[in-house]
Write a structure and sequence with these properties.
By secondary structure, the protein is of the alpha+beta class. The protein is 29% helix and 23% strand. The chain contains 21 helices and 28 strands. InterPro entries: Ald_Oxase/Xan_DH_a/b (IPR000674), Ald_Oxase/Xan_DH_a/b_sf (IPR036856), Ald_Oxase/xanthine_DH-like (IPR016208), AldOxase/xan_DH_MoCoBD1 (IPR008274), AldOxase/xan_DH_MoCoBD2 (IPR046867), AldOxase/xan_DH_Mopterin-bd_sf (IPR037165).
Amino acid sequence: MTATAEKFVGQSIPRREDAALITGQGTFTDGIAIPGALHLAVLRSPLAHARITGVDLTAALALPGVVAAFSGADLASEFAIGLPCGWPVTEDIKIPDHPPLAVDEVNHVGDGVAVVLATDAATAEDAIGLIEVEYEALPAVFDVEAALEPGAPLVHEGLGTNHCYTWPLATGDVDAAFAQADVVVEGRYLQQRVLPSPMEPRAVLVNPDPVGGGFTIYSSTQVPHFLRDIGAMVVGIPDSKLRVIAPDVGGGFGAKLNVYAEEALALALARRLKKPVKWTETRSDHHVATTHGRGQVQKMAVAATSEGKILGMKVELLADMGAYLQLLTPGIAVFGAFTYCGLYDFGSYSFDCKGVFTNLTPTDAYRGAGRSEAAYAHERIMDDLARELGMDAAEVRLINLHPKFLDNRTVPSGVMYDSGDYEPCMREAMRLVDYDAVRAEQKQRRESGDVVQLGIGIGNFTESGGLSPSKVAAGVRLQSGGWEAATVRMLVSGKVEVVTGTSPHGQGHETAWSQIAADALGVHPDDVEVLHSDTAVAPFGRDTYGSRSLPVGGVSVHLAAHKVVDKARAIAAHLLEASEDDLTFENGRFSVGGTEAGVTIQEVAMAAYLADNLPEGMEPLLSADNTFDPPNFTWPFGTHICMMEVDTETGFSTIRRFVAVDDCGHVVNPEIVAGQLHGGIAQGIGQAMFEEATFDAEGNPTTATLADYQFAAASDLPHIELGATVTPSPTNPMGVKGIGESGAIGSSPAVVNAVIDAVAHLGVTHLDMPTTPQRVWRAIREARG
């Protein structure tokens, strides 16, 4: 075997993952069948807040096919601890107990009350309907502002308050900035709750090993290593006895970045009954039992000069925790604290976030977590500032951008961005959309009184990707390291195995990691096998979320591969009886300068395997481990511009063009980047125009099915035009930044700003998401009196 001269990083080679998925050959958790497995179903509370005064399982147990049924009290002894919160953002944070199955009290509609195990899933579901539960209804609260009012119903009586925490941050003299400002603009923006809704709902299958006493857990999860570690703690099993496998995972978007009650229940019940236990989420389950995204009230103010230069910014958040703290719930809003200043350069900044309990499903990470909310607020207020000053929305942004920087720069929030060159990115987006021509067309339509008005919206953003440096994580009390592990092995055949601690669910890691290893080793990507998502194969890893996979996990693969080359160089020098300094390595071959002598890296791998002619003291085999803990986040950025047509008689909005110019540093596979952007932009458009989780006065979901919860259909989405600039990150040797969440961050503010811009001349200067036709129509009518 010889290596090719081709370089693969930067090429759009086809995703190797796709063939199986598009031909129906993927392996998903629900498709895994183990003989004798019991099917788990969960009875969920129909009340938002109540005491449990009795649970009668008699009728359910009598149903043929039912093997067992339990209440929360029956299973309480099975758990060493409740479901933990992994991000206690302050020392005095209030953390309620969170049992996997409610024992005395339910705190939101969908809280699990009892379980049934049956020989098939349909019987288990039928039996759930036969369980009789007696409740004593308690007062409930569903709005974060109302929850902080004196005398508001308490979600957890034992805590004595609905106030979970307060997290402040301040830099510079904010009061002085506002005192000397020519203009102060204030805004109140809502981040509605959204349902993550991956194509594949959650699922878990636990198979006990009767001989070794361990358990294999198959789960549709983003975080198999988290599930192993936390599952062991919750159920009280040594982590060495748990093997977690995440097979093909049909989307996650942050909702599968958790250890859920059903995973703990399945593990505890498999141990108790000594049988495999399987649970698959229904869509109804998903809408009440899987974490929701967003859920914030944002109050924001900027102080500026009459020329539009920002002097200071104030941010006040109320963040809806829901009824419990899931793994990262408190930290999501705090994570955004560092990016409310966006791409803009000014002197002083203050941020204050209050976490608030409500009797609703817990919130947690959702694509762009924290940063999407921040970008929405700062881009909304930039448009508000431009209107207040009579300036163009692009002009006010351009005069506030940070100047170009290629190494760490401290920004108003006090953190250091890694690199940025924002103006060329923004101007490229304006060029692609032909910004001046659009403004001219808008002016013409306004002057002619056209029923269909044209709006243009800008979404500038940067995000803290590459989550996260371990020391930084510790500084904000996140109970997790931010490193990532990789192993690269050259086999006796000359093929390559890459083991990664990242766990993909659609991102294309197998393809991209093979490109990285192939370039480093001088082989073809087809000769690289990427192993992942199995804690027995990859025992160390921090998994996939926070736009971290490439800038942490992929970089770790890169570094491990170069360690392999370094060892191979030493062996090659020994075999060739030459100095390492005299060797060149190109296209997978070590050559002695000025001679024809050389050896391929595959021949070196064979020599390392045979081990009979190695340098003195060198260990056999050609492999290397690497654990990479980055010195900083990466900060990808971009400008998204939306052209929107709004029918002023119906409120119906149509996206005419959508342009996104993104900068994620060096790109490994452009097609994968484009796919990630397309998906993220679709989700951002969905939140901006269609999606909202709503509830009635008793806390029952009124968007409990996909018939009620509206997504963006393919027909609602425009052709998405992509552009790029490249500003390498200095935090890693590949100069990469990550892209998985950028589309969802820049798109929502661009869309909402475009809708408002289309009708601002009619007096509509504020709309909350989603910008449904009814909401837009009502705003126009109210503005006209």
